[in-house]
Design a protein that fits this description.
The two termini are 29 Å apart. The chain has a single domain, classed as Four Helix Bundle (Hemerythrin (Met), subunit A), CATH 1.20.120. By secondary structure, it is mainly alpha-helical.
Amino acid sequence: MFEWKPQFSVGISSIDGQHQNLFALARELYDAMGAGQGKAAVGRILDRLVKYTAVHFAHEERLMKESAYPNFEIHRKEHETLTRQVLAFQVEFESGRQAMSIQLLQFLKGWLEHHIQAEDAAYAPYVQHRGVA
């Protein structure tokens, strides 16, 4: 379900590496849920995913600012929206809502694929052109 593919590459090695790590964390979460691991184990993976996402977004935003990406504010606001959604899923999970698992996995898959191929691909040429990566 969470497989890195060449079409997800934005051509910036640091970003591609972080995207691959996000896919790996999402895959780890998927595997843990599928294996019926306990709430604590799944919760730890989800927490790592949330924290890594914050680090990744900060890195992307720094590159966008340094490259004078004209749609920086729009992209930053999308990051805020995605962060709020992931945090909401985390709160739901911690409260014991079981149906959240499938919804979270579908959200992560859609977010990773769409955000990378559409939103991140849009800023990549600016970063590459300015050589700030």
